UniProtKB/TrEMBL annotation:
Keywords: Lyase, Metal-binding, Zinc. Its cofactor is Zn(2+). It is an enzyme of class 4 (lyase). Its EC number is 4.2.1.1. GO terms for molecular function: carbonate dehydratase activity. It holds the Pfam family Pro_CA. The lineage of its organism: Bacteria, Pseudomonadati, Pseudomonadota, Alphaproteobacteria, Rhodobacterales. Reversible hydration of carbon dioxide. This is Carbonic anhydrase.
């Protein structure tokens, strides 16, 4: 474990600033969260992209959202094969243990993962085709979405694929028996959003994903 180093000082300074202000002013709430456990109303699946900050977008406080982030906000199909599945584990915990009322998939514009998927599927990123590419194998989840946009004008394909990343994830969520049961019984609802980083807007999928409307 000799590779572990002390935290950079700029982060240490930010932590002490947070503890002296936000934590100090709300310490009773944080202690309640620690004692009583979390009861988030929603799970949010979003991209790892540092420009996507869902707690800021929705003005969320600690304890409100159960958040899972991965490359291109993807959910793979249900695959109970005994292997390790981080995203599927997060979904299982949110739905079965936390019993969230809403499961929200948030995509975004200028997504590097989606652009990489487009390049890979169109034959322009052979390095992502390698079995050793973790990113490439993860972006295989989005191949069905690429098949649905590949015949669009070239200038429209990536933007359409960013929306497909949300729709494919929602389709795959419905392959999880416990998600399907929660949705069909009315205990939980699914939502698909795309955040425009430049414009600061949100659009949401409606009419089964055939239309997108501004929030």
């Amino acid at each position: 474990m000799h590779n572990i180093r002390p935290l950079p000082q700029y982060l240490v300074g930010r932590f002490h600033g947070w503890r002296a202000t936000s934590y100090s002013e709300n310490s009773a709430w944080y202690r309640r969260l620690a004692t009583d456990g979390q009861r988030p109303r929603a799970m949010v699946i979003s991209c790892c992209d540092s420009r996507v900050h869902v707690t800021s977008i929705f003005g969320a406080d600690s304890g409100e959202f159960f958040i899972h982030r991965n490359i291109a906000n993807l959910v793979p199909p249900y695959a109970p094969d005994g292997l390790q599945h981080g995203t599927s584990a997060a979904v299982e915990y949110a739905v079965q243990a936390l019993k969230v009322a809403h499961l929200i998939v948030v995509g975004h514009t200028s997504c590097g993962g989606v652009a990489g998927c487009h390049a890979m599927c169109s034959g322009h990123a052979p390095e992502l085709e390698e079995k050793t590419s973790f990113v490439g194998r993860w972006m295989d989840v989005l191949r069905p979405g690429y098949d649905r946009v590949k015949d669009l004008p070239e200038g429209q394909q990536i933007a359409a694929l960013e929306r497909e990343a949300v729709l494919v994830s929602i389709e795959n969520l419905m392959t999880f028996p416990f998600v399907k049961e929660a949705v069909e019984s009315g205990q939980m609802s699914l939502h698909g959003l795309v955040h425009d980083i430049s414009e600061g807007t949100l659009v949401q999928a409606s009419d089964g994903g055939r239309a997108w409307v501004e929030v």
